[in-house]
Amino acid sequence: MAALLANLDFSKAILVGHSMGCRVVLEANRLAPARVAGIVLVDGSRLASGDPDAAESAARALIDKPGYSAFAENLFRQMFFRASPLAEAIVARALRQPTEISSALWPRLARWDAAHMDAALAAVRVPLMAIQSTTRDAQLRRTPLKPGESSPWLDLLRQKVPSAKIEIISGVGHFPQLEAAETVNRLIAGFVQKP
Question: What's the average model confidence in pLDDT over 158-180?
């Protein structure tokens, strides 16, 4: 993404990332800060901290124990709190991904979180908004957030980026940009007008 910003000569982009994509936009900002005017993180999280090797190994064990298909189905089904055709389509799409690629992503995500998340957040010098709808516990069980609640992820953002604007969207799962598109679009539009 940082290379794309340079190649397209974008000087002041608003980067929006969802879930895994939150890491992508944070890293792009770290690599090309002069090209970034703002960051929006949609239902982000942190999988691991501490030793990157241990984080990657622990994440790999979560996949290896049940097998990737069972792990992925459980992970993606928990992203929705209500059954719907949209939920079924996203779960089915996740399960169609090549196992050798998809099973590598989760451990690498945990490794990046442990090795680079703190530095990526410390590098934020532009307005940042987090749109959050869920949180997860240590067993990766996803639960909805309510206005006024916090989570370890939001606490980390407040610690590392004290100026971060936090918006909670309640009553939806991990894909608020799909389940509450009007609200997410309104929040992003308001953010874009103010950075």
Answer: 97
